[in-house]
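// run 5 | inverse folding | seed 20
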């Protein structure tokens, strides 16, 4: 089962790689290089998280704690860098992030099949939203908050993620309706987490949280959707699904 799932992921990455090629073929060298660096780094991140979940979930829980700690660091970093301005906004953002971080850490302790299912939906949504958005996106959703987000990208990522959720339904040990509801919630919260993280950056007038991950704008830039989506899954399991 795990081998089949990894094969599906690898095929998705091949499709994504083809999409990245078409996106970058007419761009200048530096811009294309940055895009390829981001794609390759993302490939390694996905592999690290995938195998940490499937081989020993304890490793994933440790990585989750590290991601949360890095997220708090980056929030404080921007607040400090802007000389402690917008304190009320910062405290509100810190409260929201703390709530989702608790949910995300609880999520990291669930059974590995459910963690893997949620992680795959998140990763597929995130990657295909970017690829379809860059290939066909023209209608910006929040141009002043996240200029790269388009209706076409959101739609493309959502469709591929939901269909993949039905394909991977067995991991949830539930019905098709339950899998669909869970996957839809993951997509909604992943998108909300992404937009929220972008809004925080705009408030402090920066493009990136940090340069700690090559090709990405920091840990929150890379894992915002995972934290929010994981928090939703924990809420679904502990509150809605008893």
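// decoded
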């Amino acid at each position: 089962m795990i081998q089949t799932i990894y094969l599906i992921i690898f095929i998705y990455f091949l499709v994504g790689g083809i999409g990245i090629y078409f996106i970058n073929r007419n761009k200048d060298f530096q811009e294309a290089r940055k895009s390829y660096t981001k794609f390759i780094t993302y490939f390694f991140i996905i592999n690290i998280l995938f195998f940490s979940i499937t081989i020993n979930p304890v490793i994933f829980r440790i990585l989750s704690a590290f991601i949360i700690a890095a997220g708090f660091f980056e929030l404080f970093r921007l607040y400090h860098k802007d000389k402690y301005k917008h304190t009320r906004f910062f405290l509100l953002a810190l409260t929201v992030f703390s709530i989702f971080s608790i949910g995300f850490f609880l999520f990291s302790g669930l059974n590995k099949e459910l963690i893997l299912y949620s992680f795959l939906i998140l990763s597929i949504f995130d990657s295909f939203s970017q690829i379809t958005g860059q290939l066909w996106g023209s209608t910006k959703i929040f141009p002043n908050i996240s200029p790269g987000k388009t209706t076409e990208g959101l739609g493309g990522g959502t469709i591929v993620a939901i269909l993949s959720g039905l394909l991977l339904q067995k991991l949830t040990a539930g019905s098709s309706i339950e899998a669909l509801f869970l996957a839809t919630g993951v997509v909604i919260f992943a998108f909300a987490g992404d937009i929220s993280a972008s809004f925080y950056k705009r408030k402090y007038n920066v493009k990136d949280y940090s340069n700690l991950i090559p090709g990405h704008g920091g840990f929150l830039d890379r894992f915002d959707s995972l934290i929010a989506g994981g928090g939703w899954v924990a809420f679904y399991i502990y509150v809605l699904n008893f």
